[in-house]
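pasting for ref
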Amino acid sequence: MREMFKNNKVSPFLLKLMLGVYPPFFFSRVGIKEVSPDFMCIKVRVKRSLLNNNLSGTMFGGTLFSAADPFFALMYWQIFAHRYDQKVKVWLKSAEIKYKRPAMGDIFLEFNLTEEEVLQAKTDLDTKGKHNQTHEVLLKNENGEICAIVHSVTYVGLP
């Protein structure tokens, strides 16, 4: 397993595969639908099931929150590894979720980084050794209605 991460790089396919069998995601029915070749976009689907239903018959809020957790950090990690051949430490520094309506069915999330965000992170790493970025992700149902909004702060720093 260590050899797989020797150069700190994974392919979009391998990242999708690893997250697909990651137990907290697997049992919560969080599925990665797409990882773009440049890691600038990740699409996620949370399937409603008996494993993530709450007593009200809607999706458990913790499932929704966990589905928004790691993706921006993973994106920065792989962008810096592939684009700059640079190792970085990344993590979700903080997050806030606002529930707008009950999640009665499957939920869809799309994580996107802009070129400006990546370049600002690179500049901050080169000058300050760290970067904090706030991102927003919308959690939508099959009809495109927003069920929740997550604002998260991702930390990117030098090892």
